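Reader question, answered in our methods column.
A reader sent in the components of a multi-part assembly and asked whether the whole thing could be modeled at once rather than chain by chain. We filled in our standard form and ran it. Here is what they sent:
COMPLEX SIZE: four components
ENTRIES:
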Amino acid sequence: MSTSSIENIGVFTSGGDAPGMNAAIRAVVRTALYYNIQVTGIRRGYEGMINGDMFLMDRRSVANIVQRGGTILKTARSELFRTPEGRKIAYEQLQKNKVDALVAIGGDGTFTGAKIFGNEFNMPVVGLPGTIDNDLFGTDFTIGYDTAINTAVSAVDKIRDTAESHDRLFIVEVMGRDCGLIALRTGIATGAEAILIPETINSGIESVFARLERGRRHKSSKIIIVAEADEAGGAFEIGDKIKEKYPNYDTRISILGHIQRGGSPTCMDRVLASRVGVAAVEALLDGHRNEMIGLIHNEISYTDFDHAIKHNTEINANFLKIVEILSL
Amino acid sequence: MSTSSIENIGVFTSGGDAPGMNAAIRAVVRTALYYNIQVTGIRRGYEGMINGDMFLMDRRSVANIVQRGGTILKTARSELFRTPEGRKIAYEQLQKNKVDALVAIGGDGTFTGAKIFGNEFNMPVVGLPGTIDNDLFGTDFTIGYDTAINTAVSAVDKIRDTAESHDRLFIVEVMGRDCGLIALRTGIATGAEAILIPETINSGIESVFARLERGRRHKSSKIIIVAEADEAGGAFEIGDKIKEKYPNYDTRISILGHIQRGGSPTCMDRVLASRVGVAAVEALLDGHRNEMIGLIHNEISYTDFDHAIKHNTEINANFLKIVEILSL
Amino acid sequence: MSTSSIENIGVFTSGGDAPGMNAAIRAVVRTALYYNIQVTGIRRGYEGMINGDMFLMDRRSVANIVQRGGTILKTARSELFRTPEGRKIAYEQLQKNKVDALVAIGGDGTFTGAKIFGNEFNMPVVGLPGTIDNDLFGTDFTIGYDTAINTAVSAVDKIRDTAESHDRLFIVEVMGRDCGLIALRTGIATGAEAILIPETINSGIESVFARLERGRRHKSSKIIIVAEADEAGGAFEIGDKIKEKYPNYDTRISILGHIQRGGSPTCMDRVLASRVGVAAVEALLDGHRNEMIGLIHNEISYTDFDHAIKHNTEINANFLKIVEILSL
Amino acid sequence: MSTSSIENIGVFTSGGDAPGMNAAIRAVVRTALYYNIQVTGIRRGYEGMINGDMFLMDRRSVANIVQRGGTILKTARSELFRTPEGRKIAYEQLQKNKVDALVAIGGDGTFTGAKIFGNEFNMPVVGLPGTIDNDLFGTDFTIGYDTAINTAVSAVDKIRDTAESHDRLFIVEVMGRDCGLIALRTGIATGAEAILIPETINSGIESVFARLERGRRHKSSKIIIVAEADEAGGAFEIGDKIKEKYPNYDTRISILGHIQRGGSPTCMDRVLASRVGVAAVEALLDGHRNEMIGLIHNEISYTDFDHAIKHNTEINANFLKIVEILSL
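And here is the structure of the entire assembly that came back:
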């Protein structure tokens, strides 16, 4: 480690909670202590920063949390932090608590705020990708994604039991507002007959009809996975179209919803969170600033906040072909 | 066993599927074979009976299914069976397949049909309580109920992670159209702040408001469990009222839905299904007719179909007091 | 509630930990507070009582623990408490902390100590059945038993996958030193080909040989469930005998061991723990002394400590016949 | 796809079973049918090949198996196949069934046989990495590894509950005869205090003592993860040494054993199996021979059998440092 003037690292979680955030917090805390640096836990993200809701953490603060879902530091969205006044108060609170560097755990909103704040006050900040959506550039996987897809898969497995028993068609909506990755992997893993994701919206309902026609002879139950689209809920709309076209199908809709955020993190999410958590503290000590610490090809990677939040997840075309082949 | 002229027992599942139905089918098949009686599997309940969709089962037919959700015999609802013509065809199909007695696995609809059919054609019929709703009289628990509440509890545990992380109020709707038993146990087991069930509908929303007021100081997250009421969905309505009264709460709604029906049955459901499955065959051989075989106080019980479907589940008043005390 | 002079209830867990102990602690704490009585948490059972390791608990002390395995109050065995001197110190520590009644959560060792202590110092004491072994008289189920058997069942399900894939015979040892109840239910629920329990030890290995002979034609995989017997491990001995008699079988041994104690409690264990926890405080206030609070036929029951620890669990003979019929 | 003379692909599983093998079989079958090629399922690996235990598969043969542990084609080890005579019979059986290409799912033993066989009879063969050990070169992960480590993690989480409740030290042995990868990830994910793996055997017991000394003040419970070493069981030996050095510790041993092989595969294992299963058939059609189809950096990779089984898994040095930092 290079010499560094960092003496007290603040750590916080922001945006939607994701399984593995606690493992990341634990890694940041223990690594800082390992390098004889103090760690300050900030509650409720930027909101708590503004409110001065922070406390010194020690080894025991993070004992026995590696397996817990949610985040012990809590999370919130902050309107005030979007204003220069809010950020100024936040900075003063950090100064009062002698915090001189930050590790921000969250997604694109979190990093957008972190970047502005780091630049405004010349505060060293790095980020960790904590979101179930896997929609960040600069890491193969985000913390929480693996747990979320396993939760979704396990839920669809249960629905398949009922679908098979009743020869039903189920339309199952999974999370992923702008991004179909959860839907895509869940669909492949559960043997879904069709997958509808924002990235291939053009193929749309007609392709679903085509698949249903083709699979008619072979399948008794059918499951269509849909990525959530908007507040109105894409699954219901698609359900209406299918019921209109195939009135004889026994069609049902299930919105998995919030269960996908919680639960004990998978091994992969805990290991990922632990690795990038250690690396984040070391990165700060090495002089990294305004970067997200991720994992690409099983190696630690450093990506500018600007680049990380560009949202350009690409859907692997092979995946769509795999669905086509396997759901026959 | 008394002497009996029964030589071929037909077994089927009907109504909504429930975890443990496969364990019950297995028990019926193996017990019949143990007593040197043939067993005929009838697919899709009364619908399959009418269509003659049935086959002789042997030991291997039920190998390795004790742990599977759903029902290998499938299930369906049959409009035709409600008519005398439909039942007559069904009877002829059973005769053609030499089936001379029936074990019906399902809920009140299933037993209503079984009773009429048994009387019309003088066919020996007994029933097994297979429904997640636990809404039958004559058994402490129905097959599938324990699995369903554990699935619901595990889902609410995940939601609690998010509720805690965000200081949110969640309204979670669980299954149970006419009956609040799933909601009640799920609520106690997850430490819910309030439970809304049809049986106490009068207490209603005002009591929820009162509880929310009282818990305000102590709790950061809040979970309200609601039994499903009607197609419109009770959770959304309740959510609207709470949002109106407490606009500052971060209120979310989650409908658990169909995931509660599937999944590998719990130990309790498998043991229950095995015990009543064995007892059902022995009951037929002993001359029992038109009875549901259940478990009361850990002993096999026999209840007239008429009595079993009377729907008079009573909510244990102590349970409501427990919620009152524990959710403080 | 009757008037009562109790002002501060001490609560502790003792003996082996069991899932649901935390739900029981929570219920005791919140019920005491509901009746405006103080609650003192005592850490590490009788050992902590002697060491004065205790603290006042409030609502927040038990927030968000209903779903956690283990016990937040920790548990230990205490040699010193077996001596009059040790118990005298314990009593003085309770006096110093103004504790004037106790709720002891544990098994027979816990209750033996509680009875002596209660009598020696005229201290009101009641107990809650917290043990995975289900070996107490006066309650249909003990707290932790349902979780333990579900953990065992889920482990054997996984082993069945391998047994089926390799056509193997597995001997799986489950917990239950003096009592075969875990083995019995696990065996029925997993479709075991044979079950060996202390209560039927005479039938022993010869009956296993007979079953293996009989099942030879039908089954490709075989699973034998054995209750743990002594330190040497019954499963290995049985394995040796089977390997000697059937050298062609591909025989493997698995000791489930300590995983059966942990994990998030099932719905049934949480509800049981909550109900008896509420009832324990109310029982103390109503003047009950030296009794274990259990659940018989779904109603709260009160059993003298002396009677509760008599260990006379009887194996339901029907259960053994069910195994005989179903494993064919 | 290039033109190809392949008309009937044989698929089989061999060696230890691994979760996800069924998903791989399903992908091979459906992809072959998609390209209008017949598929023959061969039961019990090379043993079944010699015995002619094979059958034509269709879409329904692999319906509803993507979520099942084990392998529907069963697996076995074959001594006879190690001889030229055995392999000759196997080839004749394949000819009789018109099988003209093979997909072998298994580990190094499987691929060693496949290579010899493919060369001897000029039979097109490709392999899929199906083993929980992740000890193959040419793929980032093997099918079954992710499920196995999640099973191990979930078991250690349960043990942590007991360790915490009793302030105990647990030595937990996980699978991995020659390879510490399961131990390493399980240890990081569960917050183990020390990890002992074959690759760092030199550091051995002294380093464990050092860690125990250092952690003494901070930790109440301790967990040491050990990779299985030999039949005698490494965990017991290490346990004896620790008990000798630290007689005051309450030390317990748990061998996770066979539960690590079974269970429903994780999302990652299902997606991996599906992707390489599709790619295997396409590889055969494209003229690939004697290669294992894996996934490197999220892209399909092709590795000579010779190279794949070289066993040169390297332990990432960073992983060991992470354990050092996080278990403080």
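What stands out: The interface with chain A takes residues 13, 17, 19, 21, 44, 68-71, 74-76, 151, 155, 157-162, 164-167, 170, 220, 252, 254-259, 261-263 of chain B (CB under 8 Å). Chain B has two domains: 8-144+265-308, 147-261.
Send us your own complexes using the same form.
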